[in-house]
Amino acid sequence: MIPVSVAVERVFRRESGAVLAGLIRILGEFDLAEDALHDALASALERWPSDGIPENPGAWITTTARRKAIDRLRRAATRGAKQASVAALIELEADERRDAASLDQPDIADDRLRLIFTCCHPALNREAQVALTLHTLGGLSTAEIAAAFFVPVPTMAQRLVRAKAKIRAAKIPYVVPSAQALPERVDSVLAVVYLVFNEGYYCATGPDGVRRDLCDEALRLGRLLAQLLPERAEVLGLLALVTLHHSRRAARDHVLDEQDRGLWNHAEIAEGIALTKRALSIGPAGSYQLQAAIAALHAEAPSVDATDWRQIVALYTELARRHPSPIVELNRAVAVSRTHGPEAGLALLEALAHDSSLGDYQPFYAARADLLRRAGQIDAAVAAYQQAIAGAPNQVARDYLARRLAELDRGSGGR
Amino acid sequence: MQYLLLIYANEAAEAQVPQEQRQEVFGEWMSYTNDMKAAGAYVAGDALQPVSTATSVRLRDGERMITDGPFAETKEQLGGYYLVEAADLDGALEWAAKCPGARTGTIEVRPVMVFS
Fold first, then answer.
1. CA distances (Å), A369 to each of A30, A380, B41, in order?
2. What is the pLDDT of residue A101?
3. Domains defined for chain B, CATH in brackets
4. Residue A415, exposed/middle/buried by CB under 10 A (0-12, 13-18, 19+)?
5. Please, what is the Cα angle at A55 between A51 and A58, to 5 degrees?
C-alpha cells in the first residue's frame, strides 16, 4: 500500500491546476492563491490519514483552500488591508455561499483556460511561460521544474517570481483572449506544450522520473486544451502528436528503428490516429498536424521496411515548405534514404552540412553515420559513428550507436 | 491603468521618405491619434525632435555630467510617445499594434507606476 502522504500529494497534483485557477480568478493574484493551496495541502496531510481521503477530493481542496484564503485576507484586513483584498474577501465569501447551494462548478474549465492564456502570455518570455504553466497548471514544484530544465533551484524560483511580478505590474489580464487575438495567443500556448513535450521526449538526459513527469504533463495539458478548444485543428494536431509518441513509451529504451512494436500502446495509437484524422478534417493543416500525420504513419507500420516512406517524404516536404528548418530537412533526408536509397539521403545531408544553424546537432551525425553504413562507405561510417557517440544526448542513443560501430568493426555492417 | 507607448523608429530611414509621401504618413498618424481620442484612451502624446538634438544628464557624487546625445545609441531612436488609458496590458498592446510606427519601428509598452 502506498503511504497516505504520497496519495495526498498525488491527488493535489491532479487537482491543483483547477483549484488554483479558480482561486486566482477571484483573488486576482498568484501568490495568495498559492499560499492558500499550500495551507489546504497542510490540512489534508493532517486530516486525511485519520479521516480518509474524501470522496470528492477536488471539492474538498477547493473549499478548504478558499477558507484558508478567507482567513489570510481577514488577518490582512485587521492589519489595515488594501481595498482590493477586501473586495476579494467579499467575492470569496459570496462564492462560498453560491457553492454551498450547488456544488457544480461550471466555471472550472473556463478558469483553467484563462489561467493557461495568462501563463503563456506573449509579454512573458518563453522560459517563463513554460515554468509558470508547469508550476500553476501542472502542479510541479519549483525544484522539479528546475531539475527538468537543468537549472539551479534559485534560478528557477527567480524566474517564477519575475514572471508573477510582471503579470501583476503590467496587469496582464486573466481572460480568454478576444476572437481576434485568439489565433496568435493559442499559438503561444501550443508552443509551450510542444516545448514541454520535446524536452520530455528528445532531450532525455536527465533523471528518468523527472522526464516522465514532463511527458505526462504535455499529454495532460494537450488533453486539457483539446477539451477546452475542441474545434481548433492545431490543438487536436498537437494532442495527436503527443499521444502517438506517448504510445511508444514502453519501447523507448530503443531507437525507433529497433523498437519492439508489440510494446506500443495500441489503444493510444488508435486514439492518436483518430485525433489526427479529425484535426486534418477541420484544417487548415498546420505543423503539429503534419508531424502527427508522420507519427501516425510510423505507428501504423508493422516494421521499418513496411513503413509508407513515400508518404512520409511528402509530409516532410510539405512541413519544410511551411516551416523551413534544418531539423525538418534532416528528417526528410532520412526518409528519402528509404525511398531512393542511402546515397540520395547522403546528398541531401551534404547540402545541410553547411547550415551553421544546425551547429553541433547530434542527430545529424547519427543519421549521417547510419546512411554511410547503409551506403557501404565503411571507413567514413566508423568516423561518423565515433563523432555521433561523443555527442549522444542519452544512454539509449549511445548504446545504439556503439552497437552499430561494433558491428562495423566486425565487418558485418552494410545491411 | 495607464501605459506609455514609446515609439522607436529609424530616423535615417524616415528622413529618406519622399515629400509626396509625407503628407500621407502624417494623415495616418493624425487619424490614429483621433481614434485614440474618440475611444477615450488618449491621455497625452508628442512627437520628438531627432536624437541629434538630445542631451543626457547624470548626477554622480553631486556632480552634474552632461553629455551630447541620447542615453543609448541604437539603430532605432525614441521618436515620440503616447500615454494611454487601458483596462489591462492587452488593451495597451492593441493600441500599440495599431500605431503607424509599429509597421516599420518598434513600440515599447510600459505600465505607468501607480503610487497609492
1. 50, 8, 61
2. 46
3. 2-111 (3.30.70.1060)
4. exposed
5. 105
Task: Say whether A173 and B88 touch across the interface (CB within 8 A).
Answer: yes
Cβ of residue B87 closer than 8 Å to a chain A Cβ: yes
For residue B26, the cross-strand partners are: none
Q: Is B15 touching A (CB cutoff 8 A)?
A: no
B89 CB-contact burial (10 Å; exposed 0-12 / middle 13-18 / buried 19+): buried
> Which candidate from A123, A171, A177 shows the least CB-CB separation from B1?
A171
Q: How far apart are CA B29 and CA B16, in angstroms?
A: 18
Residues A306, A316: Cα–Cα separation, whole Å:
18
Long-range Cβ pairs for the range B23-31 (8 Å, 24+): B25/B100, B28/B100, B29/B100
By CA distance, what is B88's nearest residue in A? A171
Residue A134 carries which DSSP code? H
**Grid cell locating A237:** 494536431
Locate cell 489570510: which residue?
Answer: A72
C-alpha cell at B64: 552634474
User: How many inter-chain contacts (A to B, CB under 8 Å) are there?
Assistant: 23
What the block records as the C-alpha cell of A155 is: 534560478
Domain boundaries, chain A: 1-105, 109-207
Rounded Cα distance between A216 and A209, Å, is: 11
- Grid cell digits, residue A258: 529497433
Distance CA A114, CA A396 (A): 39
DSSP-derived 3-state class of residue B110 = strand
Give me the residues of chain A with pLDDT under 70, please: 1-2, 80-86, 95-109, 202-211, 359, 411-415
pLDDT of residue A411: 65
The DSSP element (H or E) to which A270 belongs, if any, is helix A266-282
The 8-class DSSP code of residue A123 comes to T
The predicted structure's pLDDT at residue B90: 92
In sequence order, the 6+-apart residues with CB closer than 8 A to the CB of A257 are A304
Q: Is B27 on the interface with A (CB under 8 A)?
A: no
> Which of A167, A171, A175 to probe by mutation at the B interface, max B CB count within 10 Å?
A171
A96 vs A106: CA distance, rounded Å: 14
Whether A345 contacts A361, CB under 8 Å: no
Rounded to whole angstroms, the Cα distance separating A9 from A6 reads 5
- Entry field: residues in chain A: 415
CA A117 from chain centre, in angstroms, equals 15
Q: What is the pLDDT of residue A415?
A: 46
Residue of A nearest to B111 (CA): A170
What pairs with residue B84 in β-bridges?
B3, B42
The yes-or-no verdict on residue B17 having pLDDT over 60 is yes
Collapsed DSSP state (helix, strand, coil) of residue B46:
strand
Calpha distance B77→B104 (Å, rounded)? 12
